[in-house]
Amino acid sequence: MSSGSGRQFLLFVLTGGAAALVNVISRVGFSLVLRFELAVLAAYAVGMVTAYILARRYVFTGCGQSIRRSFAAFALVNLIAVLQTWLVSIGLRHLLLPIIGAVALVDLIAHGVGVIVPVFTSYLGHKHVSFRASGR
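Given the sequence above, the corresponding C-alpha cells read:
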C-alpha cells in the first residue's frame, strides 16, 4: 500500500469509525421501539448515509462521478457490508455470546463487532466502485 493509499485508508477508518459510532448509537435508540434484528438494519441505514457523506467529503475527494451515481454504487457495496454486519451481529448475539456466558452488554458487543467486520471489504469496494476516479 503506497503512502497515499495508506493515508486514504486511515481517513476511511476514521470517518468510518465516526459513522459506526452513529450506527451503534442510533441502534440503541431504535432498540427502544424495534426488535434487535430490525434495529440493526435501521441503524445501518443511518450509519451508511453518514459514511457516504464523510467518505465523499474527506476520503475519496477525487471522485469524478455524480452524487447520484456514487451513492447508488455506495449503497450496492453496502449491501454486502450490511449482510456481513447483520450475520455477525445476530450470530454473536444468539450463538457465540450465550455459549461463552456473556450476560452484560450482549447487544452492544454483538453489534459493535458486526459493524467492524466489513471494514476492509467496504474500503476496497468504495475505492474501486463507489468513488472511482473518472477514466478508470
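The radius of gyration is 16 Å. Try to locate this feature in the C-alpha cell string yourself.
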